[in-house]
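I hope you will forgive my troubling you with a question about protein structure. The record follows directly beneath this note:
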Amino acid sequence: MADLTASPNPIIDEARFIELLERVLLAVYILETVRNEQGEITDFIFTYVNQTGAQQLNMSREQMVGQRLCELLPINRTGGFFDKYKQAVESGQAFEEQYYIPEGYRSAGWWYHQVVPMRDGVAIGRRDITAAKEAEEAQIQQAALQAALEKETDLSRFKSEMMRRISHEFRTPLTRIGLAGDMLERYFEQMSREQVSERIRSIREGIAQLEAMLGALSLAVTGLEITREDEMLETLDLRQFCLDLVERYWDKHLKNQSLIVDAPAPTMMTTNRRLLELVLVNLISNAIKFSPLGSDIRVTITQSEDRVKITICDSGIGILPDDLPHVFKPFYRGRNFDEIPGIGVGLTIVQNALIQLGGTIHIESEPERGTTVEVILFQ
């Protein structure tokens, strides 16, 4: 009596499997190894190709089944596919990948295939992804175009804002020069010597202010030009150096503020005078400019074996958190700085100078509480 629980006929199973492969839209190729006398894999033979697989290669199944892979389609050897199929057989590891077939070969375009080792060969499932790749590339190009457009828009806005700010800053000294010149032209004969001297002094101060702004713009835009003078080092007493700067730049211009230099005497360091002056003048000027009347600005100098730390601390308006990462960019100004004069290049100059000095800068700030700038100079 027949055993009704016995497994179905494997021939029937294989027939059903082949029927299933014929119905799928995926191209299917089954390859069997070709080996030499030493047992090395030298090629593969097509043992099965479904209708979709033949159509993808613009061939009939009769043209493919029984043929050697690399003889029928040489790109499989030159393009490295044979080596990958061989490795899959020898390692027993399946793999999948996307790849591109150039123009001039059968089925040019983008493809995805999954390669699975089976018996002494591989089964390959392949599908055309050219349309998806083209859509992806179009999306990437569109995103790049949009990014370029936004960058151009931001740049245009930045240029307009920069020119507006520069024009505004230049207007003050130009107005001073113009008014003083007009007074001299109209009333020179009626003026006393002191009045004439005052107008001339006003013109000179306006010119000096313009020269300072032009110099700052040049330093920010083109960077620091390293001259022979910049390569010359000298030993400075940093405490006395700071006190001299205070007397030269700020003693007569403080807005009822106190500028305190706290440093041991002497604090000696070998450095470049001009570059260090650029750093300190810009940092202290910022602290004064952004601090209220009656406040203290403190410059603290400490020294260890291998470095000097200069800290400038104020209780001014501070820097907004979103602005802090951008403060070293040329012409960048915080959103809470609008009512305060300036063109936004001071910290750019500081950073450029510190690069030449081999130093570092770190800024901590809290809106409406103040800013602390820490400069490290290595000895």
Summary: The chain is about 45% helix and 25% strand. The chain has three domains: 10-128, 140-222, 234-378. Residues 130-187 form the longest helix (58 residues).
